[in-house]
Amino acid sequence: MTKFIIRILVLSLLLVFPLNAQIKKIGVPFITNYNPKTYKAASENWDVLQNSKGMMFFANHFGILQFDGVRWNIVTQPENRSMVRSMAIDKNDKIYVGAQGDFGFTTQLPNGQYQYTSLVKLLPNSEQNFGDVVHTVIRSNDIVFFSYEGIFIYKNNKIKVLRSKANFEEFFEVNKEIYVLDNTKGLLQLKNDALVPVANGEKFAGMKIRKILETENGLLLLTQKNGLFIFKENQIKPFVTEADHLLKQNQISVAIEFSDGYIGIGTRQTGLIVLDRSGHLIQHINKQMGLQNEYVTNLKVDKEGNLWVTLKEGISLIQISSPLSRILDTSNSETKIYCSQIYQNKLYIATDNGLFWLDWQAYKNGKRENANFRHVAGMSENVWNIGVFGNSLLAFEKNGIFEVSGNAAQIIAKTDGAWKGILIPNHPDLLLVGGYNGLYLLKKINNSWVYQHKIKGFEESSRVIETDTNGNIWIAHGYKGIFKIQFNTTFDAVSKVEFYNQKNGFPSSLFLNTFKIDDQILFGTTKGVYKQNPASDRMIPDPVFKNYLGLKSHIRLLKSDNQNNIWYISGENTGKMTRKTNGGFDVEELPFRKLRYLYVPGFENIQTTADGDVFFGTQDGLIHYNAIKNKKYQTKYKALISEVKCIFPKDSLLFSSRYDVLPNKGKFNDEKLSPVLAYSNNALHFSFSSLFYDEADATEYEYWLEGFEPKWSEYSLQTEKEYTNLPENEYVFHVRAKNIYGIVSEEALFKFEISPPWYRTIWAYILYFILYSVVIYLIIRYQKSVAERDRQQLILSQEKELLRSRAELNEQRLTMEQENMEIMRENLEATINLKNAKVASNTVNLIHLNEILLSIKELIGQMDKKNDANVNFSLLARINKLIDHELQGDKHWNEFEEIFNQLHDNFMQRLKTSYPELTPRDMRLCAYLRMNFNTKEIAPLLGISVRGVEDTRYRIRKKLQLPSDANITEFILNF
């Protein structure tokens, strides 16, 4: 039932955590540092990329730095010899380069050389003054080069330049969209080769954003000094993380989103910080954790899932996809580790400098600022083993047996060295301790272990001890054999000793071990796993382990874990045997190939816990394994021929990517390089490598010179091969690699031919015979070439004349088109002037007419007051009504409004749409204000007094919601 529950839990974890190479939270990934002395170039590196073959390239201060897994070379430089700041690569492996004051592209020639072409020459002289091109991006059909002074868009062999009144701040590519941060305008987006403001983009001005990532919660903004922010729905909110104190104090320089959603953040002063989607701190890798420099300039993940980190000084490779990591002690107090044990939430390690402990729970939860291994007082020499017996943690040291409590250890028994302790079967209160010269007995009294005595009758070194179900004690002596002993009833003396070695069936008496698996005693030998045959009492190969581990390797360790798996160390390989439902096993070795040659010989140790943690004690510290991680080991990669040169009479390079080493650059134009060499150059030197960077030093190679050797060589670490005195023939040099995971690469080929010496050629005998024929042929060929040249010259002259005629016709056509455009422009201006005049004339006539009507109305009013006769009253009233009707001027107003809207871009309609509460009289007043009429000119047009005009203006101001200090005329003119 317990096993079933454990399997369900493991399956649940596999479903919760995706198997796409999550970065481990426990421990620090393996880091390989490459310093300037290693790659022999400048210390500063700014960018990194990988081509389709797997080759790594770095933007170095001295140029483009190439790494093929073995050798580092500067392969090209910009034309101005400046530093390279950024790179991008297309599907054809053309590398676009951004440098200091230069940008262009580089391609590889058939002879291995890289040829750089500058694109700055396409710019006019006025645009050639710029600084570092810090970003280079390939976008569909164009290339974008970004500098702080300008953006250069290369397309169809032309360059468009985008400038800013102030300098640009940063450049971002977010989900195939390009954004630019302007110092004054804020965030802009590059669309259709133009910078378009982003809604509320001015909010970003001055934020010093260093990276923008797209998340499900909006855009994640990473600023240089102010931490992280989320931008969503035009709002910027802080994104609080567990690493805010690190990010704000140490300046973010670059960031990358990993495939599992984790975010890697490079800083200027504290290395690499990895966060999850919720802001939890997953990793903090700085100089103390193995990074050679704290200033991170760029981050890229290669095809194998490794993280390349370019630094202000050096390059680091972090193997984030590996399930193995190192439990580092920043105080560097531990060295060789002989054993590890988790006890009361503390991780203890036994080393050659004493016993140390670490707060495991805090370390596992990511609290590592003060999570250093601390020395356990009382022990300072070799601690061989530690174990939990009952409720006590005991340590077995050079000077005796110790009980560990917290930060201190107290000696229980002072002996001549203690190796290991083991409980006696059916006696949980008795502890048997193997020492340098025999066995010791401890007894548990009042929950404390008390030393009793040394057991008489056995004086051999007892470092490897196991007990069987019958109470027998099995002791392995590495140089003698296996002892099987029994005690008397008082456990103070040995009553019986049986000895087994090569005479009893073992393949050798040397390097024997004993293990207990499934309550069965097994033996590790130099040729597989053995067990005792009860019938014959002889040692025979165990059939189960023979099937899975064979009989050729030295079995150094077998151990079961809480999940019923069996861990083993066989030869140099570490592996795990997982039980299947049918009773068989699945064997897994590839994840543990890194552990080769790391164990302390003879003290190999693997510690497993109920939580699934697995610890390996090595000469290089404590290594942790996480079974949840799923790295792909069967990936394809390529072998590479780095350089080919002739040795005699002097070194002459035939193929090389090293910068400027081939004297005849571009000599070979064939798609595949297949040089034909003179017989005097029949000694060649080949350098080769593989484009696999995980433990590159452990990659092995085999080679074969077809045409000279009958078969492939044996695998070796050799990366060079030399051949001398090769006879004339056609040859093909083959090379392929095998990485630490046993995966064989695609092979690389180099074809060449060695010509025979001149005295063994047929040409030496027929040379004079054909010389005359060659001369005649050359003369005829010369005459034909002269005639052909004259014919081509005539054709060329005719083509030039035709082109000149076409150019003249085109010029005439352009001139006529310009004249037509000028005539159309003049007609348009005349039409506009005519309409303007008509409007002005109508307006003046309207004003004059209204003035006359007002005067008539005033006179009639006076007549009405002076005349008492009723005869004229009706007539005067009708005249007055007619005048009022004329003052309304609807007919004239409609004609005026139509022309007015044509001239002023539908002013009346736009105004009515924006402010529907305006009355027709209000609209008329606004139209007169638009024509810049004053109050006195407007009064007669509206048929009201000047005071009435002022009142109307006041009402309109209220409807337009203008502040008291705003000028209504200015508002109308600008509407």
From TrEMBL:
The chain crosses the membrane at residues 762-780. Residues 799-831 form a coiled coil. Keywords: Coiled coil, Membrane, Phosphoprotein, Transmembrane, Transmembrane helix. CDD domains: FN3 (cd00063). One of its GO terms (molecular function) is DNA binding. It comes from the Bacteria. Residues 915-972 form the HTH luxR-type domain. One of its GO terms (biological process) is regulation of DNA-templated transcription. The keyword Nucleotidyltransferase does not apply. InterPro entries: FN3_dom, Ig-like_fold, Quinoprotein_ADH-like_sf, Sig_transdc_resp-reg_C-effctor, Tscrpt_reg_LuxR_C, WD40/YVTN_repeat-like_dom_sf, WH-like_DNA-bd_sf, Y_Y_Y. This is ABC transporter substrate-binding protein. It comes from Flavobacterium johnsoniae (Cytophaga johnsonae). The lineage of its organism: Bacteria, Pseudomonadati, Bacteroidota, Flavobacteriia, Flavobacteriales.
